[in-house]
Amino acid sequence: MAKNDFKPFATGKGANVTSQSDWEALPALLSGFTAGKASSAQVNKALRQASFIAAALAQYTASKSGQDVLDDGDLSGFIAKMSAAFGKDFQTLDATLTALAGLATGADKLPYFTGNDIAGQTDLTSVGRDIIGKASIADILTYLGLGETINLAKNAVPATRRVNNKPLSGDINLWASDVKAISADAVGEITDNGTMASANIPGWWRVSVSNSDSVADFPTYPDGSKLYSYGYMFVEKIGEVWFQHYYAHMGANAKRQDWGTEPNTSRPWIIDYNTANKPSAGDVGALPITGGRLNGPLGIGTDNALGGNSIVFGDNDTGIKQNGDGILDFYANSQLVARIQPGSLFVINTVQTGDGKKLSLTSTNNSALNAGFNLWGDGGNRPTVIELGDDQGWHLYSQRNTDGSIQFVVNGQVIPDNYGNFDARYLSSGNVYTKGESDNRYVQNIQRGAPVWPGKVDEYGPNEAPAGCFLTQARHDPTTAYGVTFAYRPLQMWVGNGWRTING
Fold first, then answer.
1. CA–CA separation, 320 vs 305, rounded Å?
2. Disulfide check for 316: which of 112, 305, 424, 494 has CB 3.0–4.6 Å away?
3. Which range is least confidently modeled, 171-185, 327-341, 364-378?
4. Measured in Å, how far apart are the chain's first and last C-alpha atoms?
């Protein structure tokens, strides 16, 4: 076992060291010991912490490197041994590993390098995994099913074989026309001052026009603007029918067809609608989503039989129709059922509310006057009033008062058909008072009687006033040292037909 000369200091049980909490609270932990004396426990704590880490690092170095770690002051030697020890547990950092470490991991991923220390990652399919697992080229060819192909390739095609009259005695050059195909390469180019109709050979034509106005038959939008003038045009000829399809680099495209031996400049182009060239509502005879004008009646789910400015729903004579300035009529089966005009809603027959038993409001249309209910309030002592009236005034109303009570008022005579409920509420004759009898049983007015000045009893003043009287005046009696004089009056009330004095 390799030797380690570095030992931790003061690690024994009960060692004389400052507690951890005292150590962390020690001011000298930041500044060091600057004045006075440090206790041996504090010094031992500092030595133990430093020596413990040194001993641990030295022991790790000795154990991993297998070399002695001596207290000989050889710093460079110790660093070399420490590096050797780290190499046992850690991979040396380099650019390649850094590049690989930067890749995101995941299932079925295969790393690869796109340059020096530049890593990439691609999907690993089941086929790729199978091919990587093959031990030989033969196994790979068998896996791909190419074994028979290899065997057939061993026998070259005889030189007597020809392709479009070209012998296979060596390498041959084939053109698209040799196999009646269209070349993938451009067969021509349209430039300034040319025509699109000049593209008279089937295949792809390059369009490189800097000034589209110089090409008389260049594809043009309905508003007169031209399509982007760089792109490719595909030309096809079947018998005596020509077909041209222009693909602009910006995504727009146009097509046209013509009959004859070659394209004609007078044949107009059809511009395709797409996300880059969306039709307007007017282009397709529709109203824009932002609104527009519909000239004529509208039928939803059916034809419109109401005519004029109207909309019908499901039934050709049921809907809404404008019948004048500010007048909107509602029809059901050709019958006018309601009308809206500024400030008013008219229902021709009956207004009903309720899903089961219904409440109806109706008019037979033969009344001499117009009538109506009105809900109103004045914001004061009549906060809520429900009133029935006609063209000549009000008939009756029910009113909620400010105290919450209800008041019902009729503008005329109330004539009950049955007085039974009234009779039960009032006393029969002989058990009630007449007006005169009632007047003699309540006070109608109150006044003071004539004043009275009572005589003195002694030097302090007179006696108490009689019952039913009240004091109206009190003054000091100048003829005495302490006495007073006062006046009192009797209290009188009007009952029946005369004044009566209260006697107590």
1. 11
2. 305
3. 171-185
4. 132
Whole-Å CA distances, 274 to 226, 251, 252, 268, 470:
16, 8, 7, 19, 109
CB 17 within 8 A of CB 44: yes
Distances (CA, A) of 128 to 124, 132, 140: 6, 6, 11
On the question of pLDDT at 178 being above 80, the answer is no
Place of tokens 């400052």: 18
The continuous run of DSSP H or E covering 206 comes out as strand 203-208
Cα separation of 130 and 144, whole Å?
10
Q: Please give the Cα distance from 208 to 192 (Å, whole number).
A: 8
Check: CB of residue 218 under 8 Å from CB of residue 227.
Answer: yes
Burial, 179: exposed, middle or buried (Cβ in 10 Å; 0-12, 13-18, 19+)? Answer: exposed
Q: pLDDT tens for residues 340-378? A: 999 888 888 888 899 899 989 888 889 999 999 999 999
Q: Does pLDDT of 175 surpass 70?
A: no
* 58 pLDDT above the threshold of 80: yes
d(CA 413, CA 407): 16
Span 50-61, average pLDDT:
92
Nearest to 96, CA basis, from 117, 69, 79, 80: 117
Identity of the highest mean pLDDT range in 198-212, 423-437, 445-459: 198-212
> What pLDDT score does 422 carry?
67
Domain residue ranges of the chain, discontinuous segments joined by +: 95-124, 184-282, 298-362, 371-410, 445-501
Q: Give the helix ranges, DSSP H, for 133-287.
A: 137-144, 147-153
Evaluate whether 54 touches 6 at the Cβ level (below 8 Å).
yes
Left (φ > 0), alpha (ψ -120 to 50) or beta: where does 236 sit? Answer: beta
Tokens, residue 30: 């930041």
Pairing of strands 186-190, 203-208: parallel
Task: Name the strand (E) or helix (H) holding 247.
Answer: strand 241-248
Phi, psi of 281 (to 5 degrees): -60, -35
Q: Which of 369, 324, 332 is nearest to 348 (CA)?
A: 332
Distances (CA, A) of 331 to 48, 305, 327: 103, 11, 13
- Residue 351 structure tokens: 């207004």
Give yes or no for a contact between 211 and 230, defined as CB atoms under 8 angstroms apart: no
Task: Round to whole Å and give the CA distance between 1 and 491.
Answer: 132
Q: Is the pLDDT of residue 432 over 80?
A: no
Percent over 90 (pLDDT), the chain: 42
CA dihedral (39, 41, 47, 50) in degrees, to 10, reads: -120
Burial class (CB in 10 A: 0-12, 13-18, 19+), 242: buried
